[in-house]
Design brief:
27% of the residues lie in helices and 28% in strands. The protein is of the alpha/beta class. It has a single domain, classed as HUPs (Rossmann fold). Strands 1-2-7-8-14 form a five-stranded mixed β-sheet, sandwiched between helices. A five-stranded mixed β-sheet has the order 9-13-10-11-12, with helices on both faces. Strands 3-6 form a two-stranded antiparallel ribbon. The longest helix is centred in the N-terminal third of the chain and has 18 residues. The protein is globular and about 70 Å long.
C-alpha cells in the first residue's frame, strides 16, 4: 500500500511515497502448507497499481510543480526491491525499505508512522488499498498513529505547499475539502495518470540510493492460520425465453432468490 508524506514548505515539497508488492492481476492463486502460505511459484509480482498509478505519479507531479524531492518506502523483504527500483525509474529520487515481512495492516501502519515521526514529515498520502487484500485499512491507522485528519479515496488534490484542496467522489456527487498543514490522504482513481518509465529513468534508477532499515517496536502479533479459495462458479444455464416456468423453478429451487 502507498503513503506519501509531504513536508509543507512554500518553496518545495519533500514527499515520501510508500509502495507495496502485489501479485499481477491475472496470476493464478493457490496456497501451500495446508493453506497457510501463498504459493508464489510462477507468480509475477508488480507494484500495487493504486500506489504506482495514482499516489506515486501525483507525488512526482507535485515535485515537478513546486520543487523538492520524492522518496519511496516499502515495508517488506528483499523481494520488494524490484518494484522499488521501478518507482525510482518512474521518477522517485531515493528509496527506503523497512526490512520485515509484515502480516497485518496495523503492523505496516506502525512502521510507516514511526518512520514519518523520526523524519519530521508533515503529511501522508497512500493508495486507497492493495489489490491482493483490498482492506483499505492502513491509511486510517496511520492517521490515528500520527493524530492527523484523514481524507479517503481522493480523486484530486491541488496544493501550494501550505493549503491543499482535496476532492473525493461520494454517493451522488463529489466532496471538496480544504486543509492547512498536516493530513493523511488515500489515492483513488483519477488522482493521476500512469507513467511508463523511459530508458533514461531505468538507467538512473540503478544509481539511486536504496536504504534498508530495521523494523521498530515489537514483532507483528498477527499469525495467518489458513487461506481458503472461494467455491468455483457453476456453469451458465441457458433457458429458452418461452420456458418461463423453468426459469421460475430454477430461481426458486436452486438460486433461492425468489
Amino acid at each position: 500500500m502507498t503513503y506519501i508524506c509531504v513536508k509543507f514548505n512554500q518553496e518545495k515539497m519533500e514527499i515520501l511515497v510508500c509502495i507495496s508488492k502485489t501479485p499481477e492481476t491475472t496470476a493464478k492463486i493457490a496456497f501451500t502448507d495446508g493453506g497457510k502460505n501463498f504459493d508464489t511459484q510462477g507468480v509475477q509480482f508488480i507494484m500495487n497499481p493504486y500506489d504506482e498509478w495514482y499516489a506515486l505519479v501525483r507525488a512526482i507531479e507535485l515535485k515537478e510543480q513546486l520543487g523538492g524531492k520524492v522518496t519511496v518506502i516499502n515495508v517488506g523483504d528483499a523481494a520488494s526491491d524490484i518494484v522499488i527500483r521501478k518507482a525510482l525509474a518512474i521518477g522517485a529520487d531515493e528509496a527506503v525499505r523497512v526490512d520485515v515481512n509484515p502480516q497485518s495492516a496495523i503492523y505496516t501502519a506502525k512502521q510507516i508512522a514511526e518512520y514519518v515521526k523520526s523524519n519530521s514529515f508533515d503529511a501522508v498520502f497512500l493508495g486507497k488499498e492493495t489489490i491482493d487484500y483490498n482492506g483499505a485499512e492502513v491509511g486510517a491507522m496511520v492517521s490515528e498513529y500520527l493524530d492527523l485528519p484523514y481524507f479517503s479515496f481522493a480523486s484530486n488534490i491541488e496544493t501550494d505547499g501550505l493549503k491543499s484542496r482535496i476532492t473525493r467522489d461520494v454517493e451522488g456527487g463529489v466532496e471538496i475539502s480544504e486543509v492547512e498543514g498536516r493530513f493523511v490522504l488515500s489515492a483513488a482513481k483519477g488522482l493521476a495518470e500512469q507513467r511508463i518509465p523511459n530508458m533514461k529513468g531505468i538507467m538512473m534508477a540503478k544509481r539511486k540510493p536504496l536504504n534498508v532499515i530495521p523494523a521498530v517496536g515489537e514483532d507483528d502479533s498477527l499469525e495467518i492460520i489458513s487461506y481458503d479459495l472461494p467455491e468455483g462458479k457453476s456453469g451458465v444455464k441457458m433457458i429458452d425465453p418461452e420456458n418461463m416456468d423453468e426459469l421460475v423453478r430454477l430461481l426458486h429451487e436452486e438460486s433461492k432468490v425468489i
